[in-house]
Amino acid sequence: MHSIRLTCLAALALALAGCAGSVSEPTAVIPLPAEQQASLHVSDITADAVSGVEMSDSDFGLICQKVRAYIQQESPSVLADPAGGPAEKMNIHFTRFDRGNALARGLLIGLGQIHIEATVTLTDTAGKAVGQYYVSKDFALGGIAGATTTVEDVEEGFAKSVAEIVKAKA
To answer: Are 163 and 68 in contact (CB under 8 A)?
Structure first.
């Protein structure tokens, strides 16, 4: 009986931790026009952060790599080389990156939260913004789920959310 409870508790913790990797709907600041989205080609993905946000070059590179992988998985034509067509650039400008604290999350819901927030801008070859979105992903659960969830788990959800911007809408 005791092992069944532990198994159920572990399964619940894993299910709740899974929400760290779920997609958060990006908020359009400058919506990408539908006709432009249909022929969108992203040639480069870069990242930077506002002053005071502590992120390393490897953090930027890893998140850009994850975004590229999710775009490739969901919308491979967006990364395909167009035959001489225009290509947009994507820049992820982080405004908040808080790794949180696993011990605090384990103790109580709401403590030690993980927060990732950024403005994602798509620019054309002339450098003009053709689309801009606000993307936010956080995690605040407590207990076992909170203690076992890492910032890397939330980065996965963040990358999926950024990839959602360029995903072909049905």
So the answer is: no
Cα of 6 vs its chain's centroid, Å? 32
Report the run of H or E that residue 98 belongs to, with start and end.
Answer: strand 88-98
Closest CA to 47 of 96, 92, 95: 92
User: Where would I find the H helices in the chain?
Assistant: 2-17, 34-38, 57-74, 76-79, 102-107, 143-148, 151-166
Q: What is the pLDDT of residues 65-78, one digit of tens each?
A: 999 999 999 888 88
Q: Report the CATH number of the 2-166 domain.
A: 3.30.160
pTM of the model: 0.83
Domain boundaries, the chain: 2-166
